[in-house]
Amino acid sequence: MIRLALAVALIGAPAGAQDLVFSPAATETCLAAGRSDCIGASGEACMQATPGGQSTVGMGGCLDRELSYWDARLNSAYGSAMRQAKQADQANSDGALAVLSQAQALREMQRAWIPFRDAKCDFARSQWGGGTGGGPAQLSCLMQETGQQALYLEGAGMGG
After folding, report:
1. Tally: H helices and E strands in the chain
2. Alpha carbon of 78 to those of 66, 75, 85, 135, 139: distances in Å?
3. Which residues 6+ apart lie within 8 Å of 63 measured at CB?
4. What is the DSSP string of 7-50?
5. What is the spatial distance between Cα 47 and Cα 50, in angstroms, rounded to a whole number?
6. Torsion sign across C-alpha atoms 107, 110, 112, 114
7. Cα-Cα-Cα-Cα dihedral sign, residues 16, 55, 49, 27
8. Overall pTM surpassing 0.85 (yes/no)
């Protein structure tokens, strides 16, 4: 009986994650045009291009793919920023004044940001009261926050 219910549920399900039509091109084109509202552009394009992309599962899959894109950019920007911060710390270490370590400040900022992002996005999910929209709401929040942090690190002249 459980197998039958699962089979019936899957018949109307949207395409699986492997069938998502995702490309970061919409986001990259938006960013190249100098726009500031680019986070989510590729996820939205994916939802439009993927059969079943407007379903909860489709939205979740597309948002998750764009979140992965921003997470990779964030990791790259953070790595670049940390290398530059360590170089700046090295250059400043010969002075007599104690200077706040840029590398340490960057690390502490990022460590504080991660739980803030997670708590903010848990709150976004909680507003759906356990409904199916909670997953996409949380993923959208994570994507937005991660994208903003990546752009912050890149735009501060620190990242990639």
Report:
1. 6, 0
2. 18, 5, 10, 27, 21
3. 43, 136, 139, 140, 143
4. HHHHHTPPPPGGG----THHHHHHHHTT-S--TTHHHHHHHHHS
5. 5
6. negative
7. negative
8. no
Cα 38 to Cα 30: distance, rounded to the nearest angstrom: 6
Residue 150: domain span: 22-28+38-155
**What sign for the dihedral angle of Cα 123, 125, 131, 137?**
positive
8 A C-beta contact, residue 67 and residue 143 = yes
Domain CATH number, residue 140: 1.20.1270
Rounded distance between C-alpha atoms, residue 59 and residue 135, angstroms: 9
Q: Distances from the Cα of 46 to the Cαs of 13, 21, 42, in angstroms?
A: 16, 5, 6
Residue 6 inside a domain? The answer is no
Buried b (16+ CB within 10 A) or exposed e, 80-92: bbbebbeeebeee
**Residue appearing with tokens 């199916």:** 132
Angle made by CA atoms 32, 37, 41, in degrees to the nearest 5: 80
Q: Is residue 70 part of a domain?
A: yes
Question: Tell me: the pLDDT tens digits for 3-24?
Answer: 433 333 333 444 455 589 999 9
- Please list the ranges in the chain whose pLDDT falls under 50: 1-15, 159-160
